[in-house]
Amino acid sequence: MNTDNLIYxxxxxxxxxxxxxxxxxxxxxxxxxxxxxxxxxxxxRIFHSVTGKSLHQFILERRLNNCASRLxxxxxxxxxxxxxxxFSSSSSFARSFKKYFGCTPTxxxxxxxxKYPVAFAEIPIQQVSFDPELEKHFDEIVLPDLKAVxxxxxxxxxxxxxxxxxxxxxxxxxxxxxSNRLTENTKIFGVTMDTPEVxxxxxxxxxxxxxxxxxxxxxxxxxRVFQTSGKYICCKINRSIKDFATYFFRHMDYLYGFYMVAHxxxxxxxPFVEFYERMPDGxxxxxxxxxxxxxxx
Length: 297
Prior knowledge:
This protein has 297 residues and is α+β, with helices and mostly antiparallel strands. The chain folds into two domains: 3-111, Homeodomain-like (Arc Repressor Mutant, subunit A); 135-294, Regulatory factor, effector binding domain (Multidrug-efflux Transporter 1 Regulator Bmrr, Chain A, Alpha-Beta Barrel), CATH 3.20.80.10. The protein has helices at 3-21, 29-36, 40-51, 55-73, 78-84, 90-101, 105-111, 132-135, 163-178, 244-262, and strands at 138-143, 146-154, 188-192, 205-211, 222-226, 230-238, 265-267, 272-278, 284-294. It is globular, with a radius of gyration of 20 Å. The model has no long low-confidence stretch (mean pLDDT 93).
């Protein structure tokens, strides 16, 4: 990827971050083009070139996916959820939702498959029982908003193999070394903005990150503040173990299907975070952190 493309991507990242932080606001072409530093005409073309979507389509999909995430696990009023994400009326939300997801918000709330059991769901959920070995793998932490230089890519993988994500981390490490910022205390982490229970893995947005509390101005890398503040349940897994993906999903099924319920927690609509740690023996451990909140049950 040439330098011009990286610069364009960085400017569009500024817009995407602003959009996430102000998703319920009036996100006009004029406002967002100003943030990107382009004229409205050029911004619209560059945005489509970088994201593959028009600005209107991108904002609408972000709003719909956020609404869908809350519909999965909250008993709240559907209209209120729609208003929280910038829809002007329940009728416009219902039309857009059905066109995008192929069903009404009410049908989605009742019949969408999910891992976490809720009383209002009308589909059977696999029963998960207490497992003393798995239980001790989970810890509760509270994270602040995370600040980092980062590179965003689209697409996750069920087998944990995505060349784009690998290249993003290679670029992060190259930048850290060339700028003399790589130390034994450098925190490397990944942020997943979307839940695979709502979106296809191929469309989930992922960021390879190096933590930085202070703003860093770089020609090609973006600096973002991720809205991660709150409670997380985490489990640490050795990346080098055999059948890593199977091991990971087994832990996630237990976390959603039993642990959260038993500890009076429910999933929260915030980014997922994974922290990387290299051990003295060379193995890399990943501490997976899932956003939660206190359950009303």
